[in-house]
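lol ok so funny story. i was supposed to be doing the assay writeup but got distracted and ended up predicting the structure for this chain instead. priorities right. anyway since i did it might as well share w the group, maybe its usefull for someone
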Amino acid sequence: MLVLGIESSCDETAAAVVSDGTSLLSNVIASQIDVHKKFGGVVPEIASRKHIEAIVPVILEALDDAGVSLKDIEG
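and the output, tada:
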């Protein structure tokens, strides 16, 4: 079974593809550290907007790195 995991808490947007619950096929992380550094911490409104910008490219890169398409994902 191929699973697409998505994480978007705080200041990172990430996606990973896992096979059979044990084999990591890809793991892509988009960090916002540089964006928030000048504010001295995470600004929730900015973080939210950056997640919206990053989520689709991160998912597409994770799928590509794993050599699968979205229709291959089962869970």
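DSSP finds two helices and three strands in the chain. Residues 2-72 form a domain with the Nucleotidyltransferase; domain 5 fold (CATH 3.30.420.40).
back to the writeup now i swear
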